[in-house]
Amino acid sequence: MGALLGPRGARLGRPGRLTLGLACMLRVGVTLVLAHVVLLAAEASAADQVEKQFRERVQPILEDYCIACHGDGVNKGAVALDESALNPERLRDKKFWWAVLKNVRAGLMPPAGEPQPSEAERRLLIDWIKHDTFGIDPTAPDPGRVTVRRLNRVEYRNTIRDLMGVDYETNVEFPPDDTGHGFDNIGDVLTVSPLLLEKYLAAAKSIVAQAVPVVPRVVPETKIAGRRFRRAGDDQKKDEGPLPLSYYEPASVASTFHAEHPGRYQLALNLTATDMEAFGADYNKCRVVFKADGRELFRQEFSRQDEKPFHTQLDLDWSAGEHELAFVLEPLTPDEKRLRSLTIRIDSVDVRGPWDRRFWGRPANYSRFFPSDAPEGAPERRLYARSLLQAFAKKAFRRPADEATVDRLAALAEREYSQEGRTFEAGVAQAMAAVLASPMFLFREEGLEEGSSDRYPLIDEYALASRLSYFLWSSMPDAELFRLAEEHALRKNLAAQLKRMFADPRSREFVRHFVGQWLQARDVETVPINAFAVIHRDQPSDPEADRLQARLQELNRRFPETLTGDERKERNEVRAAFFKTFRGVREHELNDELRQAMRLESEMLVDRVLRQDRSLRELLVGDYTFLNERLAKHYGIGGVEGKEMRLVTLPPESPRGGVLTLGTVLAVTSNPDRTSPVKRGLFILDNILGTPPPPQPPNIPPLEKAAKEFAGRTPTLRETLELHRAKPQCISCHNRMDPLGLALENFNALGVWREQEQGGPVNSSGKLLTGESFSNVQELKRILADEHGRDFFRCLSEKMMTYALGRGLDYQDVETVDSLVDRIERENGRAGALISGVVESAPFQRGRRPVGGKPPNLTDRTTTYPEHRAELRMQP
Prior knowledge:
The protein has 34 helices and 19 strands.
């Protein structure tokens, strides 16, 4: 290379290495600048094309139908659509146009009564938003961003059950999961706090201790459940479980045990003194005697103990053959009052033995984790441990573990079992605990298919297996999914696997948790509803009841020690008389049994539609539901007897049927003491139509404040809402919510049908913002199914995709959802089209390429995705 030239051709000498480096950097910099200029030019050209398309094709539509309310200085809803407002920056505002798209498709804009665009004009506007503004390519839709998802409490529990055979109480041991977009499996909110990290470590140790044997041989043990002990003459077959015996009645129960070998045995008695909740102190006592072959081995007296457990161990020598074990309960205080319900619960008797090592056997679960005995030689043990841990880590991580990880696990096991006094099994168990505490287990890593040139490549088949299993089972893949993923044949057999998985009992987890969150059915178990206040509100005015209530409140405000004997007597009489004026409180009170029946009704209704591939419209206008006797009486439906939930066809005139009139929906969308048309309307907008209103503005006065303006009487909720809705800041949202919520006013906060409110007839008629009128809830349901069926399909598709993907949807998913809704309509609303469509969609099947081209790896915290880091996010 010649000398470099300076200004005016001055020679600067031959370049050295540093000078060459600077020259190379200069060339690279120039290249990058030129590339950036080209990129900006391309973007500018695309932006110009978007604006040109808008001015020529879209702006005339807006001028014809939108400018009257959103232009020329008028900007209702703070939205302006005239030419001066729609500058290039606004045309690129995807959030703005996404809102426009939603309102146009829902029929909210232009409003009913105003000139409406033709279907062709509406389609032109929608296509411009999707393809020009959003930049969606229908042939290669963006699958969306990825946030590495932590297992939530349900998924962790089910995965541990399938992997380890342990039912770990995550609801007790772990803090509640946060929710996002209505679901608790959303990756963005499933962070790991330091507290949760500690609990994961403790859980890993506890689970392995319960499941994995740490010795190769143990004393034989047989558990005899309490219900195996029977009274004389009782030949009925007993189920497993504990046996309660009353303190107040003498009892003698016995069972037999067959000893195969003579020798030393140990009996472990497991008893619990129980006490049903009641008022007053119960001083009754009893004596429990335990005998083996007629010989007394244990005797103890019991008083009220408040669920106190008792354990004792007894050693004895037995010959081979049958041996009788018996409990005798003797009441000791027959003259004492029975104020509570005291019982001794026989939980079990554990028989251990014989203690002669010749008869010892494998521990429970040994073959599950150790197919054979550990070899004697150190190299052979190392290889055996490695193979065990490699297979275990593959299942736990839901994909093959890399060689370095397996080597570290094997080394950990070897360090443990090489210590004096430690067994091979204990070393492997220690390494298994490390697997359960690993991010590779706690988080769902997803890889992409190698060698693909697609802009958005397919996720690999192990990732697809996990997406399927956690979508439909809330648990890890089973052996068949693993096999197909390993053979790279899962995608080829997707339809058959989908059918198999949905037929598996584990698919009830999908129904339970999707329905529990979409319809808020899980909340019915805890929602506070005051049955007395609800029923009192609907009772006609009763001066005598008002007088009794006022007197009772007056006496209750006094300190008890200041009341005279006559006043205490009067208080009891007034209380009894007052509560007699309210009939039906106990009958309709939401106790645990009724709440559970309500939740089951919701789950079974949706389950029938999904599992039998019925029309999704039945979720709105079905003529059936699922009831047992308790729930049927609550609804006022006769002819149903027994505790078992069963399919019930409703009479043609029944207001029940479909999800809107489920007891769960009616209860969880109510206030503790009354219905809430606002909550119910919001529920329908958000979960049925998919058009929720914007968040409530600040400083909005409560509804009760409007009620105070009705002097001299208590207004109905309809009257109160009309006054509240008259305020300018309230009208836009309440015009959408209130008609929907008021249509359900014939159902009180308990979900019970009523004809009267505040002594007057209930008015459930209304008119939707889209123009349809109805006179009752039956007509509303028909309008939603017939006129807004596509809106319902879209909303349900969005909800199910959110649940399946573990992320909220955004504008990039519009085309995918539209294609899914088109498919559902082509197949007459079949539920199978929804499930298959979600699984076959691009967001479920594909992923974005990570920045830098590296595959995602939980052990590599530098892997990044557009808009999000795929990393383990720790809260401070």
